[in-house]
Amino acid sequence: MKQFLKVMLKRKSIIGSSRDTGYRIYEKYRDRKSECIQPVFKDINPAYLKSPLNIFIEQFLPENLCYLPKKKDYYTKGFSGLGDEFMWQSEPFGLHLQGAQKDGTIKDHSGEWDELKNILNYFLNK
Fold this sequence. Notes:
The protein contains five helices and three strands. The chain is α+β, with helices and mostly antiparallel strands. β2 and β3 form a beta hairpin.
């Protein structure tokens, strides 16, 4: 419960604070007409984000303070179960496998090679 309260109170400093590649692309092209790829949410983690209390709280907050998107159809179901997946026009578009972990180690993806090859073949044979 203590962790839940800590995260709930830190919303403003956490949400929208990442300055990753996606943010830089947004900043550069935000005034242009464009289409967007659709992210995939496989599961909401940590579990307290899908708790009844968090879902209740987010009903009253503006979207920029919510962990879960409010826009209908903002995210969709995935296609592989690996990494971060993205869809475009209801078709698989991209896959990102995270290498570096928060603790500084590099994730070993060797157990996922067969599934990754199948995904790459799917993209290459379209």
